[in-house]
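Example with several molecule types.
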Amino acid sequence: MKYYISKVLTAFLLLCLLIISIVPFYLVMVNSTYDSVKIVTQLNLLPGLSGWKNYKALQQHTNIWLGFRNSLLITAPFVLLSGYFGALTAFGFAKYEFKAKRILFSIVLASLMLPTQLSIIGFYFLNLKLGLINTFWPFIIPGIANASAVFFLHGMIQQSVPDSMMEAARMEGCTEFRIFNQIVMPCIIPGIATISIFNFVSSWNNYMGPLIILSEAKKFTMPILIATIKGVYLSNYGAMYMAIFISIIPIILIYSVLSRYIIHGLTIGAEK
Amino acid sequence: MKQLTGENKRNIWGYVFIAPFFITFIIFNLYPIFYTFQLSLQRWDGFHQAQSVGSANWKRLFQDETFLLTLCNTLRIWLVDFIPQLGTALFLAMIFTFGRIRGMGILRAIYYLPNLITAASIGLLFNLLLNGDKAPINQLLTGMHVPGAPFAFFKNGLLAQLIASYILWWMWFGYTTVIVMAGVTSIDPCLYEAAELDGATKAQTFLRITLPLIRPTMIYLTITSIIGGMQIFDVPSTLTNISGDPQKALLTSSMYVYNQGFKNNSFGYASALSVALFLLIAGFSFISLKTLKKRETTYQ
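Resulting structure tokens for the full complex:
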């Protein structure tokens, strides 16, 4: 009897957490299909018919797809740079012996712990001096120095790239750079894919950086656009819900396909 | 001997391969930090010549009651988020690892989902869901006849802080669960078998075996959470349009830095605030590392 009570109680708690996790997203989805009057006068639990109207109203003052494009123009190159240079740096640390190796690698590890938001003032003036205000470069170039990618791929290269393979390539006259591009890279593609998912999410969700660097409305990324939307639409709740819905749907779609790899990637990072 | 020099030569490539990382790191990470430190001793509006003012910013900082308030806000929001988060994660990790729950993978994946969504969207989302008597959550609570509903969530400072903590808990408990589970599954199953043979209860097994052995995981979670928690910015600022109201209850230290710098153009003072926060984070991390590590030795 006691056994069953604890079973039922556990199931109930798990269900509560499940509802708590999903309900906000569900309410956003449902409310994005009602007009503002219905949103404030009744509780909507099933999808309505005003979705297209809300979308039209949203498009009148904000080009949400421009925000989408801007976010993509930042995120895609950032992810590629992080993957490639993360692997290159990790390779340099994993497969070569040099004097300052230990101290430099501990600098990489320590930089993972740096509270980056606290240097925003310096970051702003650096980009001002470089003439990069209102450009996407301040969010793309730092991909070359992505410490978490280095950390993640370092262990992977140590485990899955045998020295004998590199020796064989050297015998054939391969240069070190070619060894990296043609032998090491293909071996660690799964690892690069995993870390790329996380880099995608962190870059896509970056809010504070674009907030200080981008002031032209046509350069706004998705998070900035969403954050400003309350001031633009005031009481057009339908349009605002639609905006939130459009902003979260890509991540939810990607996640529904890749959730297994994402959860697995999380645990790999934690075990080290 | 010849081979040795060949290998030495080859190892130069190590430097070559890590060079792009360090050049970018110095320019985009280290320089902003040093520049912020330097600016913390100056007065500057961002346009005219910066003036060196010695420790004036720091004197102001120690008398700044708003800064103290933001620190208390930040700590309160963080603690009320983090402690329940660890509790939920430990509970879930236990039943997921030992309970053989059907659909565990899907449940865990859904619990983790909020962590991936843009904090800016989440701030606006909860603002729309909670703010106002006719907001969906209030309608839901009124419909369920919850006493006191509808609630004025954003009129009362304490309630607004609770909301912020709740949102952060909601965003992070799934992540924390995944990490704690990774720690729990790495424990040698033999230990549990031995405990069972010795007749230990489930609670005893949890307190005497699981908890001490996942201490490294707990240290990792605590320290990364302190670092992130002391910088809370996205959620409270999008929840309140960077104002931090009601009564500045949602004004966190990071938001205060932002406002001093980019709203008031007091870049010197904002930098001093940043440096102070930086030192506080380092201090808190160090203290929690020491205390958590010390406990470890008394256990053994």
